[in-house]
Amino acid sequence: MTTGKLAEKFKINREAIRFYERKGLLPKPERTATGYRLYDVRAEKTLSFILNSKKLGFTLAEIKSLLSLRIVNGENCSTIRIKAQRKIEDIENKIHQLGSLKRALSLLVESCLKKQTSTYCPIIDNLEN
């Protein structure tokens, strides 16, 4: 399958496929006599893995690490499970941080509603101090 067909199948642009190839996430494909890249079924599965991992919040570095642990008779499953558990912890930490940010911003907005005048903005005052 050519780069264009692969891009079309996964609804991404061709440059994204080339980018994943340059980053070592996708294996270098065979080329036709005219230089077109030809991806096999394994490359399709790898690209699907990359895109689905990104949807779950994994970074490209983490995805590369996961790809290197592809399951062979289940021997790497526990390692992958541990990495997935760590990602869950990262997500929970981010949710907590976002909640803290939301509360802080909400307090600023409330103070603005209570103390706002035409020449004074509590939000700006708070951010400056």
TrEMBL record:
Instruction: State whether keyword Iron-sulfur applies.
Output: no
The molecular function GO annotations come to: DNA binding; DNA-binding transcription factor activity
InterPro entries for the chain = DNA-bd_dom_put_sf, MerR-type_HTH_dom, MerR_fam
Quote the Pfam families the UniProt record gives.
Answer: MerR_1
**Which keywords does this chain's UniProt record carry?**
DNA-binding, Repressor, Transcription, Transcription regulation
Q: Which domain of life is it from?
A: Bacteria
Task: Give coiled-coil spans as residue ranges.
Answer: none
Give residue ranges for domain HTH merR-type.
1-69
Q: Quote the protein name from its UniProt record.
A: Transcriptional regulator, MerR family
Originating organism: Turneriella parva (strain ATCC BAA-1111 / DSM 21527 / NCTC 11395 / H)
